[in-house]
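Tutorial handout. Part one gives the primary structure; part two gives the three-dimensional structure as tokens.
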Amino acid sequence: MIRVLMVEDQPVVLNFWQYEFSKHKGEFELLVATSAAAARKIVSEQEIDVAIVDMGIPIDPDSPDPKEREEHPRNGLLLLEELKSRHQVKTFALSGTLNPSLQRHIDCPLITKPVKDFEEQVFTLLRTTNPGI
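Part two.
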């Protein structure tokens, strides 16, 4: 079974993914983080094969620092790099729209299609993933 960490802070999008993953029980195990801080905690406690990261994720929505509560693509970029380098997790970036100047900094598959097309693209990528790479 492939253990997937979904890092997403928008409840509607997160509910969509939880529903879609529920159709694939036994194939994928979905873990959810709603901030970069929550994602870091999960990967420090559990083995993860793949992370799908919303590029606009806040670092920590409960922080007193407004910059850490802010949703900004740089947060997703930093988290992607950390997950790949420190935790050896295969990563995918998730974004409905992303500034082209930021796209060149993403060193993993970038999923940018409209939400209705995300499902097919994500599950195709996950099925071709070799855990541990």
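Part three, for discussion. The CA atoms of residues 56 and 72 lie 5 Å apart. The chain has six helices and five strands.
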